[in-house]
Every structure is written in structure tokens, then in C-alpha cells.
Amino acid sequence: MGVVNVTPDSFSDGGLYLDADAAAEGARRMLDEGAAIVDVGGESTRPGSEGVALDEELRRVVPVLERLNGEVPVSIDTAKAEVARRALELGAVMVNDVTAFRADPELAEVAAEHNAYVCLMHMQGEPRTMQLDPRYDDVAAEVAAFLEERLGFAVSHGVPEERICLDPGIGFGKTVEHNLELLRRIDVLLALGRPLLFGFSRKSSLGKIAGDPDAKVGPLGASVAAAVASYERGATILRVHDVREHVDALAVAQAVSGV
Ligand code: HH2
């Protein structure tokens, strides 16, 4: 899954795709480079962010979807039902909601009506404050319990279970150690029986592991290593900004595993 953030302030690609032509071109390039789907978002959820108004989010993402004209499989990264509705009408095939249908419960019905694929993600707290002091007694068990509950919610609102993938939400109310433990104990998440999406790409935890305690962005090599480690432990979808490098690395990992 490639990432195109149509925002001025995303933590690693803010401003790069704010222009609709540049965003559409970026999405097409990612498809050429081997992405199976491109996640288009109009609201940054980086630590400390405040969120954007509906009108502004629509103004950012609708022109991109219009330009893509249904020719690129798009996942719409939004927590708003109205943004998802417009995106699905314009050909998007998946709804990626970092709030797992908590911010706008109507989003579940919109996804169901359009027979969309869905990604439900775990987040502790909200972007504005989530990295201030994240705490868990047992991060893997708590994230799994949350995802199981949200999976039940989505299914009870008409989204077929086969259309849903789950995501532990790397960096969303989690320390470096929490993120690593979620990958080490991925068996607890795999036991939920749905494909798992991991989004380590460029996240600050990777920069910290690579030696910079003040890192805001993780380096490419660290992102690729985290994606391969996630794949080898059982993740199905890797959400990444640098598609070509990840596709190459994952092709090798896949060849080694003989799948
Ligand atoms: N991470 C980000 C945004 N959306 N969605 C899922 N399912 N999983 C993730 O890990 C995830 C996500 C944050 O990364 P990015 O989109 O690059 O930054 P920003 O939120 O600043 O736009």
C-alpha cells in the first residue's frame, strides 16, 4: 500500500502532494512501482495534529480521485463518513479509518453500502495528545481486544468480515517498545483471523532505534527492515511511502520464504 498524503503538514511527505496533479501522478507512479493499492488522505494524524474540517478535507482529496478516474485502486484514509462516501462514489475501493469507526459511526454504513474493503486501526487517545504518555498493562492483549471489538462493530453494521483488515496502529499512542512488542507478539493479533496491515514506514520509532533519540522521521533503510520483519512474521499489507524500495525488498523476502 503506497501513501499519498494530500496535506501541507504530514510528518514525512507534507506538502509534496498538496497539488492534485502531483498527488495523482504520485499515485500512478506508486502503482507502476508495484503497489497494489494507494492510500490517499487529506488529514494528517501525526502526533500533535488537530484535524481538518470536512470542507477542507473534501477540497484536498476529491480532485485527486477525479483525476485518478478509478484507474488506480485507492484506499481513502479518512475518519469522516462524507469524505468516504465521495471517495467511494469516485471509485475508491477501501476505507482506512485510523479511528476504527469511532469518530464517525456512520462510516461503517457507508463502507457497507459501497461494498468497500475496510482497515480498522488501533489508536490510544487522539493525535493531539497520544504520544505524551502512552501506557498499557499488556499492549498486545489490549490492542487485540480493541480490534476484536471494532471488528464486531463493523460486521454488525453490515461490513462483511472477509472485507476487513486490522492494524495495530504503529506510533498511534505507543512508545518504541510498544511498537516492537506488537510485532514480536503478532501471534495475538493473527489469532483474530483477519489480514494485518502494518505501517512502520518513516515513523519516528525507527529513527530512534537507528540512533537519533530526537528523530521525527525514520530513515528509508529502517523502514524497509521493519516492513520485511513485519512480512516475515505474518503481516499481509505494508503501508509505505517508498514503494519501489519496499517492493524490491519484499520480493526478495517472498522468494526466500518460497511462497
Ligand atoms: N499511519 C499514518 C496514517 N494513516 N493508517 C493506517 N491504517 N496505519 C497506519 O500506520 C497509518 C495510517 C501516519 O502516517 P502518514 O500518513 O505518513 O502521516 P500523517 O498522518 O502525518 O499524514
Rg (C-alpha, Å): 17 Å
Bound molecules: 6-hydroxymethylpterin-diphosphate
- Overall 3D form: globular
Spatial strand arrangement across the major sheet: 1-2-3-4-5-6
Describe the structure in your own words.
- The chain has a 6-stranded parallel sheet. Strands 7-8 form a two-stranded parallel ribbon.
- It is globular, with a radius of gyration of 17 Å.
- It starts with a strand and ends with a helix.
- Helix 2 runs parallel beside helix 3 (81-89).
- By secondary structure, the protein is α/β, with parallel strands linked by helices.
- It has helices at residues 20-32, 54-68, 81-89, 106-113, 139-156, 176-184, 186-190, 204-209, 220-233, 243-257, and strands spanning 2-5, 38-41, 74-77, 94-97, 117-121, 164-167, 197-198, 237-238.
- The chain has 10 helices and 8 strands.
- The structure holds 6-hydroxymethylpterin-diphosphate.
- 6-hydroxymethylpterin-diphosphate binds at residues 3, 5, 7, 10-12, 41, 44-46, 77, 96, 98, 119, 121, 167, 169-170, 197, 199, 239.
